[in-house]
Write a structure and sequence with these properties.
Length: 335
C-alpha cells in the first residue's frame, strides 16, 4: 500500500516537473521586441505603436510581444537609430529626415513639393517599388523599414503677415530645420532662412528674431506657437513621414510566418494611425482657431511650386538622389 502511494506521489511529482518544464519552455519561446520613440503617451504616434504591439501579440498568439519606451527615454532620434543598428533597440519610430544621415534616399522627403498633395504622397508610399527601395537599402547597415506614419504636411505660419504668393515671402525671416534643402527652399521662395532648434521657435517669434516658421498644425497647440503666430497658410511645401524601422538581424531571426506577422501588423497600424492623426489635427485646428485666434488661409500652391523647380533639377541630376527621385516620379505617373 505504501509502495503504491509512493509511486502515485512520484507520478504526480513528475507531472508537475514536466508541466513546469513546459511552462519554462513556453516562456523562453516568447520573444519581446524593445521599441523606442520620442513622442508623449497621448500622441497619435504612441497610440499607433501601442496598436502595432497589440496586433503583433494577437497575430502571433502571444509568441511575440512589444515593450514600448516612449518620450525619448532611450535617447534622441539619431541615438535611437544607432541603437537599432546595433540591436540594443529592436524597433524604432523616427522621422524620415533623421534617416538622411544614414541613407541619402531619405533626403527626398525634404525636397519641397516632391508630393504636391497628400493623396499623391499616399500613392507613392503605397507603391511597393518605392517602399522596397527605401525599406531594404539600409539592411547592410543594420536596419530595415517596416512602414510609415503620417506626420502631416508642413505649412507656413507667421506672426503678423498673410502670405498668398511668393512675392509676400520677400524679406520674411523663416525658421527652418538644420537641413541644406530646407534652407535653399526658403531662399528660392524669397524668404530669409534661419536655422534654429525647435525649442527656440516660440520665443524667437515672440521677440521678432524670426517672422515665421513652418510645421504641421500640431505646433500651434502642442507647442503653443498659436499664442504668437496668428496666420497659418496651407502651403503644403513638404510632407516628411515618420518611419518605423527594425534591426535587420533581429527581423531575420524570425520565421517567414513571424516576419509576415510583424510586417502585416506594421501596415495595419499605419491605417489605424491615419484615423487617430486626422482626429488629432481636426481637434487641434479647432482649438487654434477658436481659442487662440489663429487665421487659417488657403493659398494657390502654383507659384510656390514653380519657384522651387531648381531644387528638383538638382535632385534629378545628383548621383545620390536621382534614382529615388525618378522612381517617385514614375510612381506618381503610374495608374
Amino acid at each position: 500500500m505504501l509502495k503504491k502511494s509512493f509511486i502515485a506521489l512520484l507520478s504526480i511529482t513528475m507531472v508537475i516537473i514536466l508541466a513546469g518544464c513546459q511552462n519554462a519552455a513556453g516562456q523562453s519561446n516568447t520573444e519581446q521586441l524593445k521599441l523606442a520613440h520620442n513622442q508623449t503617451l497621448d500622441h497619435p504616434v504612441h497610440l499607433s505603436l501601442v496598436e502595432f504591439g497589440r496586433l503583433v501579440e494577437e497575430k502571433s498568439d502571444g509568441a511575440i510581444t512589444v515593450k514600448i519606451y516612449p518620450n525619448g527615454q532611450l535617447g534622441s532620434e539619431r541615438e535611437v537609430i544607432e541603437l537599432t543598428q546595433t540591436g540594443a533597440v529592436d524597433v524604432a519610430k523616427v522621422s524620415a529626415s533623421a534617416l538622411e544621415g544614414f541613407a541619402s534616399d531619405y533626403s527626398v522627403f525634404s525636397l519641397p513639393y516632391v508630393f504636391e498633395d497628400y493623396e499623391t504622397f499616399q500613392k507613392v508610399m503605397n507603391n511597393e517599388k518605392v517602399t522596397n527601395e527605401l525599406y531594404y537599402q539600409t539592411e547592410d547597415i543594420g536596419f530595415i523599414g517596416l512602414t510609415y506614419y503620417n506626420a502631416g504636411e508642413r505649412n507656413l505660419y507667421t506672426k503678423d503677415r498673410e502670405v498668398h504668393d511668393v512675392s509676400d515671402m520677400r524679406g520674411l525671416k523663416v525658421r527652418v530645420q538644420p537641413s541644406q534643402t530646407s534652407v535653399q527652399m526658403i531662399e528660392y521662395l524669397g524668404g530669409i532662412p534661419t536655422a534654429m532648434a525647435y525649442g527656440e521657435v516660440y520665443t524667437a517669434l515672440q521677440s521678432g528674431v524670426i517672422d515665421a516658421a513652418e510645421n504641421n498644425e500640431t505646433a500651434l497647440v502642442g507647442n503653443n506657437h498659436g499664442e504668437v503666430a496668428k496666420y497659418y497658410m496651407y502651403t503644403g511645401h513638404q510632407i516628411v513621414p515618420d518611419m518605423v524601422i527594425m534591426n535587420a538581424k533581429r527581423f531575420n531571426q524570425f520565421s517567414d510566418e513571424q516576419q509576415a506577422i510583424i510586417e502585416e501588423a506594421a501596415k495595419e497600424s499605419t491605417l489605424y494611425h491615419e484615423e487617430v492623426w486626422a482626429e488629432s489635427i481636426k481637434r487641434q485646428t479647432e482649438i487654434a482657431k477658436n481659442e487662440m485666434g489663429v487665421n487659417f488661409i488657403e493659398v494657390d500652391k502654383t507659384p510656390f511650386i514653380n519657384a522651387v523647380q531648381p531644387l528638383h533639377e538638382q535632385y534629378a541630376r545628383n548621383e545620390e538622389t536621382r534614382d529615388i527621385y525618378h522612381l517617385i516620379q514614375e510612381a506618381i505617373q503610374s495608374e
